[in-house]
Amino acid sequence: MTDDTEDLQDTYPGAGTFRFGDTPELCQYLIGLVRQRKKTATCAAASDFDDDPDSMPVVGRCDIAANWDGTPALVIRTTKVERIRYCDVTEEMALAEGENDSLLGWRKDHKAYFKRNGGFDPEMMLVFEHFVLIEDLAGREL
């Protein structure tokens, strides 16, 4: 844990740290969408939490979204968590992720993402998290 993260733990006790996406470019793009308040949701394969159940989002908890290099970028608060099959994600949910203009675009991009990261099945279970931006840490002296 970095000193920056330790300082944030004083402000946001119990906060976990995570990264959006699976590449430096995607990570920064998604952080930008959150900063613009276009991205208010995210999802992951439910199996991603098998080895670390404490990393599962929890309603009401604040978590720290890190830049690709691990430095803190944002603090978000989880407002809703749903377990849902990939094939059952609604257009409203997909649009809340802020990355696509349609459910079809979301399905295409997320299918490719899941294939790159452990496998894809249209019946796979997802953890779908809705959140609000609490603090943008850009320029904050930690």
Highlighted features:
142 residues, alpha+beta, five-stranded mixed beta sheet, 4 helices, 5 strands, 29% helix
Description:
With about 140 residues, the chain is α+β, with helices and mostly antiparallel strands. It is about 30% helix and about 25% strand. The protein has 4 helices and 5 strands; from the N terminus they run αβαβββααβ. The protein has a 5-stranded mixed beta sheet, sandwiched between helices. Strand 3 (about 60-65) and strand 4 (about 70-85) form a beta hairpin. About 20% of the residues are buried. The mean pLDDT is about 95.
Give the arrangement of secondary structure elements:
Blueprint: H1 3-11, E1 17-19, H2 24-35, E2 41-45, E3 62-66, E4 72-85, H3 91-96, H4 103-116, E5 125-136
Parallel strand pairs: 1-3
Antiparallel strand pairs: 2-5, 3-4, 4-5
